[in-house]
């Protein structure tokens, strides 16, 4: 830069120009400040001398990038840190806020990266306090530093590994977080009179950041509904038990300023979630609870601040936290309980009445009441809980509010129907069912009273044909859907008494009566209506829960009162008759919902659930309706089989049919069930080659492959698999080869075809087992090899496509899965191929190596399914064909070794385990054939010795990655990792000694002697062999070594 003015002009254009070309020019001209560490001093010069905030911002941003992207010397980082602190102290109050923020970001980033390297970095909290003792402008900077520091600690950064990130966070939590929280509390106390100021907001934000810190290293909000409590460290006990801590947040809420009140309530939500074991004793915990209840009671009495929606929602969350951490007996024992529970009930009823405004907050209130009533069974308090005075009215108000909401939302085309939000619906019903069961008789009567008139109106409306009733029918169907969802939720809890079972019968009978109405009269024309689809979806939910509670031989015996009542109300007296009604409804839906993919999928999933159970499957086979479905499982009877949109659901349909057919153990039934597929085979096999690339053929192939995959999934025994194999081989296998030959460039065809083959070669439950005199296993592999070699040889030369994953990588990972399953299936003696000169195995291995090498390592690791398939294949390949791998050329072997090394650093536990096994196979071979044996003589051992000599860092890097994972990560597969660790350590003891020195030098000096002893004990009692007993001894030593090493 010629002068500072020119630079300031460029900076102004960078941040203010509307012209993208001009901004790009400025960015390129200024890039050197952020990429070249030699420009750090120039950044300092700019900060000292520039007059425009944009130049200061550029210098600050460049420093941030420098400290993030470059591994700067320790002293230089300390100098930058000290300079930024000094600069903020002297010139900070005069700077623009965005410049202050950028400089603070630099300070906090460099502090985090150096936290474990030098004590000076950990002095940042103390130095921030120097700002707090000065005037307001400096006070603001001090609070901003602490806010950003916590945010920076909480945020993961790719520069730090997960292990380093966790170590920094834990150290910061132990050394500084409590001190910062105390600072926030003292600041809040000092600033009480400074109402609405930025200082108040910053102090409150700082307290909230402390309370939402990742105490357990889970990177999740611990006070969310998935967690019972937040694990505040024991050192926080005194400050939490201090009554002024809770009171300061109630006081700030009382200020009535929306943002401040909301954050104060958020802090209270966290404080209400602290773990029970933190408190000194039960008396301290009860005192804390009483303070919370009194504070919330005062808010309920005055209603202050609750007109703000944010405050309202957080207050509901706060109430919902009470039963999470405290027993009902503790809550009832407080002096203010009677008033508190009455006010909470009134607040709940008012919230339910104001459903339009409070719909997203109601769940927290229902959760509170649900947990209160479920606790009564263990309640041992002397005072009454008073819950029975309020629960029935809450149930009634909840139902009526939902009816009111449907009335309004159906008239508003833009509003979302609550029945479509399945997550929120299930959350609310999960709580609601406990409330209904609490006073079941009263609730059952109320549900019956309001549902009977609706069903009567609905029955009358179905007989009409006028289009004018459509809107009324939609409203009735929506209300009935809601009622069915309620009944379904109640049935999730099995009745525990005679009276409850009779109430279940009363409610369930109404749903079964409703089924008789939904598919008759004018309703036959309404399958395209959303309201009818929602009603049928609710009925499916009811079926699921009713089946679990009341279908089956044991359920029949224990539910005689329910079926006796059914006989009176419905005319059905046993579970088979009820099951026939359910299957009849499923069959009707499958035939009639020709336009709804979701409806077809939901019905098929329920049908599959029934067919998958042993008992339920046997019951289904007794039903004429099921036999009819099996016989007529074709596109003429089920129109969705003709629609290309439903091609994915065909697999589920034929999987279900296959389970039913194979359960009968009847060869003739199997042959008759595959007649429709046989006809498709015959039609396709008759098509000449010149006409094989048409849309008609494509759709037929896609449908056939999905159907076959469903049947293959249903074969779970040697006999059933044999039926399918004998039907397909050898008659129909040529069609698969022809299809892959002509359609290799079309993933729509190859994906379902390859997925069928992947299922067909999978030896689950040892189903792929042939007679000793049979060559079927070898013949199966030969067919698979021909198919995969054909696919690979055609997909590799094709030009790159826009979506490389869909076009190429997806087919490759499915092919890898096929080959992995074939290699590991244990139904082929692979030595036969070499013995008789058959190229099936060699050609398959060659094409797979080519496919793997065609994928860049970055892509291989970036696509999760591809990575999982590749590493699973690699582990099987090295286990079964290690000599092939060791005889590969150096470039290919180096690539494979590099992927193993990358996999050993993976966060995916399965990939990590597979790479550990792969590393062990190579290391074990090296140890047995080179290290401990005589001079290598086989081609594979000679080649391995040469490859390792050419790449001396291969084994040390693998061992280093394994040690770092075991020592610094929370690995659940330690036993697996111990296998290659021992193999690698026995290959070269010097390698282990060097690694030990590298690890020790990164530890605190005072800890190094203890940790060195841990390393010495690791090999205690270990011999120089890889026998199973020796490996197990090392695994035990490794567990003890890890525990001792991680102690602080």
UniProtKB/TrEMBL annotation:
Residues 26-90 form the Importin N-terminal domain. The keyword Transmembrane helix does not apply. Its main location: cytoplasm. One of its GO terms (biological process) is protein export from nucleus. GO terms for molecular function: nuclear export signal receptor activity; small GTPase binding. Gene3D superfamilies: Leucine-rich Repeat Variant. This is Importin N-terminal domain-containing protein. It comes from Daucus carota subsp. sativus.
């Amino acid at each position: 830069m010629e002068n500072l003015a020119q630079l300031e002009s460029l900076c102004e254009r960078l941040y203010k120009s509307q012209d993208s070309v001009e901004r790009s020019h400025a960015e390129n001209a200024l890039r050197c400040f952020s990429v070249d560490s030699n420009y750090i001093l120039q950044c300092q010069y700019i900060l000292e001398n520039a007059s425009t905030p944009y130049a200061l911002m550029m210098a600050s941003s460049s420093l941030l990038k420098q400290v993030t992207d470059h591994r700067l010397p320790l002293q230089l980082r300390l100098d930058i840190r000290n300079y930024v602190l000094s600069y903020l102290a002297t010139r900070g109050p005069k700077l623009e806020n965005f410049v202050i923020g950028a400089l603070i970001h630099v300070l906090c980033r460099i502090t985090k990266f150096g936290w474990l390297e030098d004590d000076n970095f950990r002095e940042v909290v103390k130095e921030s306090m120097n700002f707090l003792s000065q005037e307001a402008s400096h006070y603001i900077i001090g609070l901003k530093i602490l806010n950003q520091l916590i945010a920076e600690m909480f945020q993961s950064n790719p520069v730090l590994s997960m292990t380093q990130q966790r170590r920094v966070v834990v150290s910061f939590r132990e050394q500084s977080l409590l001190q910062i929280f105390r600072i926030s509390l003292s600041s809040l106390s000092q600033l009480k009179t400074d109402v609405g100021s930025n200082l108040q907001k910053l102090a409150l934000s700082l307290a909230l950041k402390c309370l939402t810190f990742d105490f357990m290293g889970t990177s999740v909000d611990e006070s969310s509904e998935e967690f019972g409590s937040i694990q505040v460290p024991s050192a926080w006990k005194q400050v939490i038990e201090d009554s002024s801590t809770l009171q300061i947040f109630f006081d700030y809420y009382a200020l009535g300023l929306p943002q401040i009140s909301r954050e104060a309530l958020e802090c209270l939500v966290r404080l209400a979630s602290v773990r029970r074991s933190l408190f000194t004793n039960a008396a301290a915990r009860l005192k804390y609870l009483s303070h919370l209840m009194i504070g919330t009671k005062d808010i309920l009495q005055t209603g202050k601040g609750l007109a703000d929606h944010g405050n309202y929602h957080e207050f509901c969350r706060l109430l919902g936290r009470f039963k999470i951490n405290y027993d009902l007996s503790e809550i009832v024992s407080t002096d203010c309980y009677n008033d508190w529970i009455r006010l909470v009930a009134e607040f709940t009823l008012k919230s339910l009445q104001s459903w339009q405004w409070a719909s997203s907050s109601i769940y927290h209130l229902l959760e509170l009441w649900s947990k209160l009533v479920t606790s009564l069974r263990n309640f041992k308090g002397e005072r009454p809980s008073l819950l029975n005075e309020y629960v029935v009215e809450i149930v009634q108000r909840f139902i009526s509010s939902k009816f009111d909401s449907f009335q309004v939302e159906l008239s508003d085309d833009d509003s979302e129907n609550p029945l479509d939000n399945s997550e929120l619906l299930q959350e609310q019903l999960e709580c609601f069912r406990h409330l209904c069961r609490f006073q079941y008789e009263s609730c059952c009567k109320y549900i019956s009273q309001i549902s009977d008139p609706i069903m009567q109106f609905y029955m009358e409306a179905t007989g009409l044909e006028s289009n004018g009733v459509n809107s009324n029918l939609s409203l009735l169907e929506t209300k009935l859907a809601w009622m069915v969802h309620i009944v379904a939720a109640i049935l999730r809890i099995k009745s525990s008494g005679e009276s409850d079972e009779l109430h279940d019968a009363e409610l369930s009978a109404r749903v079964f009566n409703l089924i008789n109405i939904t598919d008759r009269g004018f309703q036959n024309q309404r399958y395209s209506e959303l309201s009818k689809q929602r009603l049928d979806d609710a009925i499916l939910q009811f079926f699921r829960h009713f089946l679990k509670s009341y279908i089956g031989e044991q359920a029949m015996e224990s539910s005689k009162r329910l079926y006796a009542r059914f006989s009176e109300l419905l005319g059905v007296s046993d579970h088979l008759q009820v099951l026939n009604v359910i299957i009849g409804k499923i069959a009707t839906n499958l035939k009639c919902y020709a336009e709804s993919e979701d409806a077809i999928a939901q019905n098929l999933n329920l049908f599959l659930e029934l067919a998958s159970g042993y008992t339920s499957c046997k019951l289904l086979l007794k039903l004429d309706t099921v036999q009819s479905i099996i016989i007529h499982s074709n596109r003429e009877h089920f129109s969705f089989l003709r629609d290309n949109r439903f091609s994915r659901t065909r697999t589920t349909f034929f999987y279900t049919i296959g389970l039913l057919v194979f359960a009968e153990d009847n060869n003739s039934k199997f042959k008759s069930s595959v007649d429709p597929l046989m006809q498709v085979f015959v039609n396709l096999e008759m098509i000449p080659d010149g006409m094989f690339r048409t849309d008609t053929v494509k759709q037929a192939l896609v449908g056939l492959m999905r159907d076959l995959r469903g049947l293959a999934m249903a074969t779970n025994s040697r006999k059933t698999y044999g039926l399918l194999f004998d039907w397909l081989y050898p008659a129909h296998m040529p069609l698969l080869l022809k299809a892959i030959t002509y359609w290799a460039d079309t993933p729509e065809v190859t994906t379902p075809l390859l997925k069928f083959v992947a299922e067909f070669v999978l030896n689950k439950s040892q189903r792929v087992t042939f007679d000793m005199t049979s060559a079927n296993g070898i013949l199966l592999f030969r067919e698979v090899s021909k198919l995969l070699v054909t696919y690979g040889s055609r997909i590799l030369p094709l030009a790159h496509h826009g979506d490389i994953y869909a076009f190429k990588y997806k087919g490759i990972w499915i092919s890898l899965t096929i080959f992995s399953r074939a290699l590991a299936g244990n139904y082929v003696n692979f030595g036969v191929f070499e013995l008789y000169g058959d190229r099936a195995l060699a050609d398959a291995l060659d094409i797979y190596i080519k496919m793997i090498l065609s994928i860049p390592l970055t892509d291989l690791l970036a696509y999760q399914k591809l990575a999982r398939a590749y590493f699973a294949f690699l582990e099987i390949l090295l286990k079964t064909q290690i000599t092939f791998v060791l005889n590969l050329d150096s470039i290919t072997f180096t690539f494979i070794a590099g992927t193993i090394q990358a996999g050993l650093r993976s966060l995916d536990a399965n990939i990590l385990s597979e790479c550990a096994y792969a590393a062990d196979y190579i290391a074990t071979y090296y140890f047995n054939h080179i290290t401990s044996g005589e001079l290598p003589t086989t081609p594979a051992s000679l080649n391995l010795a040469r490859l390792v000599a050419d790449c001396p860092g291969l084994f040390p890097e693998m061992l280093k990655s394994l040690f770092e994972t075991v020592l610094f990560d929370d690995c659940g597969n330690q036993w697996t990792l111990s296998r290659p660790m021992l193999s690698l350590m026995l290959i070269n003891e010097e390698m282990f000694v060097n690694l030990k020195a590298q690890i020790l030098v990164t530890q605190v000096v005072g800890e190094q002697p203890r940790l060195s002893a841990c390393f010495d004990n690791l090999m205690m009692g270990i011999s120089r062999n890889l026998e199973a007993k020796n490996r197990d001894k090392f695994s035990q030593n490794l567990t003890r070594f890890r525990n001792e090493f991680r102690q602080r």
